[in-house]
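EI: anyone free to look at a 962-residue chain?
SC: sure, send it
EI:
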Amino acid sequence: MLNFFDPSQHRVDPNRDYGTPARLSENHVALTIDGMEISVPEGTSVIRAAALAGITIPKLCASDNLEAFGSCRLCAVEIEGRRGYPASCTTPVAEGMDVTTQTGKLAKLRRNIMELYISDHPLDCLTCPANGDCELQDMAGAVGLRDVRYGFDGKNHLDAETDASNPYFSFDPSKCIVCSRCVRACEEVQGTFALTIDGRGFDSTVAASQNEDFIDSECVSCGACVQACPTSTLMEKSVIDQGVPEHSVVTTCAYCGVGCSFKAEMKGDQLVRMVPYKGGDANHGHSCVKGRFAFGYATHKDRIKEPMIRESIDQPWRTVSWEDAIGFAAKRLKDTQAKYGRESIGGITSSRCTNEETYLVQKLIRAGFGNNNTDTCARVCHSPTGYGLKTTIGESAGTQTFDSVMKADTILVIGANPTDAHPVFASQMRRRLRQGASLIVADPRRIDLLKTPHGGESMHLALKPGTNVALINSLAHVVVTEGLEDKAFIEKRCEAEAYQVWRNFISEDRNSPEALEAETGVPAAQVRAAARAYATAGNGAIYYGLGVTEHSQGSTMVMGIANLAMATGNLGREGVGVNPLRGQNNVQGSCDMGSFPHELPGYQHVADAAVRERFEDIWQVKIDDEPGLRIPNMFDAAIAGTFKAMYVQGEDIAQSDPNTQHVESALTALDCLIVQDIFLNETAKYAHVLLPGSTFLEKNGTFTNAERRINRVRKVMPPVAGKEDWEVTQDLANALGYPMNYSHPTEIMDEIAQLAPTFTGVSYAKLDELGSIQWPCNNEHPDGTPTMHEVDFPIGKGHFAITEYVATEERTNRRYPLLLTTGRILSQYNVGAQTRRTDNSAWHDEDVLELHPSDAELRGIKDGDWLGISSRVGQTVLRCKISDRMLPGVVYTTFHHPGSGANVITTDNSDWATNCPEYKVTAVQVEKVTQPSEWQKHFQHFDQRQQAYLEQTSDASNFALK
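SC: here you go
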């Protein structure tokens, strides 16, 4: 008997559709299908059981990422002892069931069904864009349909108009068979409920929202409907233009920290489409508009394709060979150190590049530069996560898998907007909310997650920006004073003395919701209700984002979150945990790889002599035992004249870091700025050396997502400039006199595994075998660690930290009466360098300032007005959008367009422990204006000049190094 009960006895093929989702059960059910005896978990459908046994039953409305629907009837079977022909997708297996999938009667029934479908379907297969990739076509062949008795003379849908409004896919209703797969995918997979079946019977049609064009509807262009469609009704425009792909490569998306797996489908070396890969453990075959469709930047005309150099930023670029560019950069770095000292140079690693590439950059800095002046963009986003979690539970990473949320009873989301920033995980979270989990959102702005259709109970704690610690303390106060702690967990898993000190502190009346209500703006009754809901949930899970970390008390808040989780016992099992939602695709990996100035790879402090000795043995060089400069220190030192050269790989600090004018002054002060990137970004405009970068499609390596999941990145096409990023760094190291001789990224990973304890068991061979691995992966956990801290913490017992609330220095006053907070939007990504070069700009072509109606009325402002936004450090101008999503007194904007200047007005206030900037709290004033700000005028002039320098690029093949 074939046993499909034990997953270890078989492996599901992610490239095959099994008809209905898998069922998990401890009970076996034995049955016979076409004479074959099999055993499957209870609840499995007949169609899935047959597919597991290698028996294909024709189907149209069924798919294994959707619940059974039973509308097409093509999957009918015969079951001994039952009348009629039940649909195998909606029929669960039963003990002793005897199923027959192929008989003469079934064949005739299926042909008749197909004949009806085809009678109202264009017979244009040879010119159809789905020809060769159409399930309707496949099923017509599978059932042996050779003739259609019904002509097109009667009423039909063949003249229905195509909706081509969406930039990425078209909707051709003339080819729709109304199988409802697109509607169900929108509901069950994405959770947007943007599609519906309008009308009844013959008049049934798929409609977007209220019969709107797709572009104007609630559709978020995730592509789930396109992927689900069995015909060419919903079809990617890239396939229409280029034809059906001929081969594919599985790789990992380079957008957000979810780390979705995709099949990059190709014709030759041309990418036709990105299809979410069902075998991806982070996304399970789902995607968002960015990963699914916004890949055109990889072949955009703006790509930097050749190395370039110049003596000054006021000169045009000169195109040179790789050898000359690397030689020029190395000489500048050497000359700078000779003149200003060993500490006068440094570098910044990328959170968009691979683990291997990031590892090499920090190695270059420590071994080639001879100092620890290395930092990364995590400094300005999640460095408080590292400090806060390391202090309390001993490991600076999320504790769970994304799938863990499906076992959560109460979900607490703090300072995060998953539907915009982590949309694929948000869809999974929404699925759990539809199953009945309750939701608590702590955010100054009302986020879309609160509008989850058919979701369970939800609560919005609309706190004032900058009062996170006050809120978390008041939640913990309720837990402690109302006896809601998990005393058994605390006694077994936490430091007794530290807990008692914290308990005494948190129990003080000054931490009560009533005492802090005026500070947070959240009614005490709401806080108490939220605390009880989380503490008594059974499984309470916390997810947080940059709205937690990007504060002057970011590290304190992270510790407060960990305190709350430990106090309620919500750690160490599925359905609970403390989960930072990382922003960029490899923020977690860039931290893991030792990008911070005080830590070597694996979060090992540079002051530890034993750690340094291990690295020195393998690197064959002496490592500095003193932490180097952080990014803000580099800027200050550059302006002071002591820091003179910088190597920046894959980061745009001129746009992404706070107090833009301060950053620009620092970059201008450098004698040598080396930028390695795919475009002339805002930082590259200040560069002396511009080295072409490679996109994720052009390289091999790994990314590590927000759940610590290491995924393979596989080369899909050759690098446009001829080199992967790791090769460029290696060339620079060799030119500086520090030898690097890797031939492939797998060798770099092998070295990482030697040096980073959490990566000991990681290799490309194991990644290819398992699909992905969640660190730590070592002798104790050879296949990785999906759930952290099940038995103990890396520091032994959990440490409760005192979290005094200290109000931010960034206060409102009569001159600056409003508080600005910032965030992201679904269609754009980070600084927008990638997404702005795609059709995603159809949804968001400018950053706007959201202003509450009462604040607008007070100032005589109307929707669409141009507003001058002034802070203590600068001014910019944005268009107004009247919105009631924020509290009165709070304004909001995104930062995806460089000319918007959002960070011109954010200050350099930062977290007390990590220097993470306080992006989320800036006191501002807004007023109607009629022209751009002075900074925007300067930006436009500087941008035009730098673009002209790029266009004036001359050949410097005979250039002599100076």
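EI: Residues 322-340 form the longest helix (19 residues).
SC: 👍
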